[in-house]
Hints:
The complex is a heterodimer of chains A (258) and B (298). By secondary structure, chain A is an alpha/beta fold. Chain A is built from 9 helices and 16 strands. In chain A, the strands form 3 sheets. In chain A, strands 1, 2, 3, 4, 5, 10, 12, 13, 14, 15 and 16 form an 11-stranded mixed sheet that branches. A 3-stranded mixed sheet of chain A has the order 7-6-11, with no helix packed on it. In chain A, α1 packs across α2 and α2 packs across α9. The radius of gyration of chain A is 18 Å and the shape is globular. The mean pLDDT of chain A is 96. By secondary structure, chain B is of the alpha/beta class. Chain B contains 11 helices and 12 strands. Chain B has one domain: Glutaconate Coenzyme A-transferase, CATH 3.40.1080. Chains A and B meet through α4, β9 and α5 of A and β3, α4, α5, α6 and α7 of B.
Amino acid sequence: MDSDAYTDRELMVAATAREIDDGDVAFVGMRLPLIAFQVAVSTHASNAISVFESGVVRDDPASGFLHTMCDLPNIDGAVSTTSMMDVMSRLQRGDVDVGFLGGAEIDRYGNLNTTRVSSESGQVRLPGSGGACDIACLSGRTVILMAHEPRRFVERVTYNTSPGHGDGGDWRARESVSGGGPETLVTTKATFGFDDDGEMYVRSLHPGTSLEDIADDFPWDIRTAADVSGETVGRTTPPSETALDLIRTFDPDGFWTR
Amino acid sequence: MPDSKVEDLSTAVGRIEPGSTVATGLALEHAIPFAAGHELVRQGTDGLTLVGPISDILFDQLVAAGLVDKVRAAWVGNVSAGTGYSFRRAVEDGELDVENHSNFSIALSLKAGAMGVPYLPTRSLLGSDVFEENDRFREAEDPYSGDRLAVVPAITPDWAIVHVQRASPYGDAHFWGNSGVTFEGVDAARDTLVVAEEIVDPEVIKSDPSRTEITRESVTAVAEVSYGAHPSPLAGRYNRDNAFYVDYAERTNDPEGAEAWLDTWVDSVPGRAAYMERIERDLSVSERTVAAEVEYGQ
Lengths: 258, 298
């Protein structure tokens, strides 16, 4: 499909949906993953279940557009509407396969900051963790979604709201952080994996983006799939017609995706 | 016959003393007691410590009104628009003390309070700056396995303010839809104000005891306020008024705007009925889902 036939965020949603495997328990949260889960469960992952820290548990798309996880179309027809302790306990005992995160800053090892950043005028206060710290610590794996903006890529996050692979290697095991940590980062220009040392690398480039376009966005020498495994850096699969139709059904006015 | 705890909202909120620790907004984006929050603003109940997981814009409004000394929360902002500008300004200007939590650590804090234990352990937090920067969180060794864990101390608020679909005059309440940490908050708090969409005969509550999530001994006062959670949604009653959140963000990104917003939507309206007269959007549930009949009996 021609890359001007969809928006960057529609591509991100479609790529994120593919990160949900059939049968997964997915901890969804807010914004684009709200749409991505609905696409996944409508296509290749009909046995996936979504859980939300509000207490909602669903096995199908919501009955209408969602601004938040607590909108009535997400509660209506849910499998269960329970409590945060219930959902966080599922997460803590290892029942959540994949969790979704965003961030104002990300570093080389996938640590995320949503609490405060420094700017020329001083410290900027951000909303904080919400459930992100818990999802980052405890999910089987995490998928991170971020706008691709150079200021968001930092050598080390100023505040580690949501631990990734720490400073690399066996950091998570040493620090008793039990979940698997970041597996994928999806930006508006590329998808990234994390190597055996926990370091981010370019896995695939979205249509229209070259490695040269993004290499200078990082304050370190960004590695690629070629460096990690010898494979060439792939091209991100564009959204299918089916996926696009679903995204535009679940987000008819483009509130999240346009 | 048991005593009725029904009061008008103004009288009930008047019980909350300046300097109190108040847990509210406990069902996340669902069932946020905005009407009670606005009454706190009208009464000028200041010196508050607010406790909650995510607050959406209620905490931002109470901060804008100058009522808040401290926030103990996981996330403070505007879920539809991102930033809560009054919260952000107050933190950046050094006027507001913030204890950063994760959602789970707030849940565990209130659960510990509800259970009457001093703390609870968790496998979350370790490795994060949420843990490192909060000296109330401690690291501990599991005496059985030797595992490293984080321990989270109890929070026991003076008050919990919650919004429910229906309650009896005695304070027993039915609640449905996702509950977040509502019931942990009620059980942890010394006093609870239940704001009900509707006050019903006690027999209605007893007809479906599995839906009774709050019982009278936890409840200090009950107030009936229709649309008392607007602009947040309430399961089975009304939808989220998202445009209201977007408009709030646009109008409150400077201090003068926040003051004008409070004047328009809080100080110059005597109560919820007058407030709702200004909302033209139809938020009512348009496609009802009626649960399968539940039978008890003997």
